[in-house]
Specification:
Elements lengths: L2 E5 L2 E4 L4 E8 L7 E7 L6 E7 L4 E3 L7 E6 L4 E6 L8 E11 L2 E6 L3 E6 L1
Parallel strand pairs: 2-11
Antiparallel strand pairs: 1-3, 3-8, 4-5, 4-9, 5-6, 7-8, 9-10, 9-11
Length: 119
């Protein structure tokens, strides 16, 4: 059973910073990409940032310039440094690992960590 365990969420004031971490375990295959998604109350889950095994990154427009994703593909860990946080960043943040096999994507998810930004 694949496990993704997130940590680092919490409550912070607007303008503050948080660093999220995610560690994958029980994965014996290669991961093509890892990333972070978030879901606010009443909204759909949305992409925050991803990083491929080759180090290519992708960010949602709403977090560009404020968030930085990094990862250690060999150790199957991914991090999200969040700076200049805004109340609209409040959401449950989910770690994702994606494996691609013959053009089929397999997604694995963590349990989520709450990030709350107060104004």
């Amino acid at each position: 059973q694949v496990q993704l365990v997130e940590s680092g969420g919490g409550l912070v004031q607007a303008g503050g910073s948080l660093r999220l971490s995610c560690a994958a375990s029980r994965i014996i295959f290669s991961i093509n990409a890892m990333g972070w998604y978030r879901q606010a109350p009443g909204k759909q889950r949305e992409l925050v940032a991803t990083i491929t095994s080759g180090g290519r990154t992708n960010y949602a427009d709403s977090v560009k310039g404020r968030f930085t994703i990094s990862g250690d593909n060999a150790k199957k860990r991914v991090f999200l440094q969040m700076n200049s946080l805004k109340p609209e960043d409040t959401a449950v943040y989910y770690c994702n690992a994606r494996r691609v096999v013959v053009e089929t994507e397999f997604d694995y998810w963590g349990q989520g960590t709450q990030v709350t930004v107060s104004s």
